[in-house]
Amino acid sequence: MRFARPAALSVLLVALSGGVALPQSSIAPATGSLPPPRPVQATPPAAPPPAAAQAPAQPAARPATQPATGTAAQPARPPQQGQAPARPPQGQAAPARPPQQAGTPAARPPAAAQAQRPGQPPTVGRNPQPQNRRPAAAGAAAAGAAAGAAAAGAAAAASRAPEPAQPPPPPIPSTGSVTGLPLPRFAALRSDEVNMRVGPSTSYPIEWTYQRRDLPVQIVGEFQLWRRIRDAEGAEGWVHSSTLAGRRTALIRPPAGAAPNAPAAAQEVTLRRRPEDGGVAVARLRPGVIGRIRECEANNAWCEVQVAGHKGFLRRAEIWGVGADEEVK
User: Fold this and answer.
1) In what order do the strands lie in the sheet with 133-135?
2) What sections of the chain are H helices per DSSP?
3) Nearest CA-CA partner of 322 in 307, 309, 299
4) Residue 235 reports pLDDT greater than 70
5) Tens digit of pLDDT for each residue in 270-305?
6) Phi/psi of residue 182, each to 5°?
């Protein structure tokens, strides 16, 4: 015998099995039964990340000098003939120059290196040498005025009768009237600025100003505190005795027979280790160099001198500052 299933119970079973909630108005809850279950709510999907987060990370910028990935660094091509080499990028050091190829002429060494060869004695002195003296300002102006007057009166002088010859200068006394020392004798300038006047007093004008310390001069006269001197070029005048020193120095002369316009090498003299022509060369000395006399034996053709730290022997004829037969110790 079959029993009819109540319609409300059938609807309730269908709702439980399908998870569909029915409106309360259509189904009345049965007395003593459980409330209908609530439908399970699905979890909403997470919000998509922003576009910046979704994009993959970009690789860091490569340096300009780093080669591309997977490719080897290509060496820089040398510039072709006639083309200027490419300049390096700004901020990079210039590449080192390649070694000089065979057949290319090497750079010339400095003039000093060319003159100084290995095994050759050193050369002492400048070319040309500094001037020993300069004319005074007043003396130069007077010389210019005298030159103008001489040019203006050249015609009158030509028509004038010749004047009688001037008498020779008086002989130099054998001894000084103040010191009693022999005359002439040699001395040296004490400083780099010594005024030579036309007379033995500061009231006389300055004719020359010497500008080389230790320059040898020859004393040919005396008057109180003044000394009349003569230099290697023949100029004479008066200087104060305080500007002279008793040390003996010598001025290098060009070798005998050398022309004034000869090359510098032809005017040099050789400082030798021994007082003989075949002695070992110590240095080459140019004319105008000043040295110190160490010793000269009487009636000996050689003197021992020291020039710029070089010691050796020179002939008397190659220096100015010692007598022909004078003895210096």
Assistant:
1) 133-135, 206-210, 194-197, 236-240, 226-230, 216-223, 185-189, 244-245
2) 7-18, 51-54, 111-115, 137-152, 154-159
3) 299
4) yes
5) 999 999 999 999 999 999 999 999 999 999 999 999
6) -65, 150
**Domain 251-256+263-320, CATH homologous superfamily name and number:** SH3 Domains (2.30.30.40)
Are 172-247 and 251-256+263-320 in the same CATH fold?
A: yes
CA-to-CA distance for 232 and 217, rounded, in angstroms? 7
**Could you please report the per-residue DSSP string of 223-256?**
ETTEEEEE-TT--EEEEEGGGEE---EEEEPPPT
Q: What are the residue boundaries of the structural domains of the chain, listed by start?
A: 172-247, 251-256+263-320
Give the residue-averaged pLDDT of 29-34.
52
Place of tokens 């290196």: 113
DSSP 328: B
- Give me 97's structure tokens: 């120059």
Q: Quote the DSSP letter at residue 57.
A: P
pTM: 0.57
Residue 1 pLDDT exceeds 70: no
Q: How far is CA 109 from the centre of its chain?
A: 16
Report the topology of domain 172-247. SH3 type barrels. (2.30.30)
Tell me the two tokens of residue 83.
């083309």
d(CA 222, CA 238): 9
